[in-house]
Amino acid sequence: MLKLDGKHSYLRALEPSDLDFLYQLENNTDNWELSGTQTPYSKAVLKFYLENSHRDIYEVKQLRLCICNKSHVQIGLIDLFDFDPKNKRAGLGIIINNEKDRNVGFGTEAIAICCDYAFSTLGLHQIYANILEDNGHSTKVFEKLGFLKVGVKKDWILTGSQFKNEVLYQKFKP
């Protein structure tokens, strides 16, 4: 089993027992703006997803890992997506489920662990992240971890009746 340890948390492969956590997280409409989701997911669809989550990143171009605290409680998910081995890059996305687990370092640690894995094990040259311009906390975290702001996608995300800008960040292999 893939397990990547940090001081306060660790990343691990998704397990069948994560179904209820995934169902809650994916169907929380507060998260839909970040994930681009527009419709709810059934447990049957998520169960099928979990049954296929063992597939190799080289095949499905994505790796989703569960972020757990040291008490082994699921607190979020982190993804490498749009994996492009030819150009040695991938996108990175993260969500911490509960407000109480945000702004206490879990996200920062998970991103650092995931980047180390992507650079050292997958041999990536760069990782990118798309962050809404009004998401100041994520901006601070990614900049703290060495991601550079390289562009702004104007009116990129429609939220309700208002468009928001999305900022593109990149981090290159040290």
From TrEMBL:
SUPFAM superfamilies according to UniProt: Acyl-CoA N-acyltransferases (Nat)
TM region positions: none
UniProt xrefs under Pfam families: Acetyltransf_3
Domain N-acetyltransferase: 9-174
Name by which UniProt lists this protein: GNAT family N-acetyltransferase
Source organism of the structure: Croceitalea rosinachiae
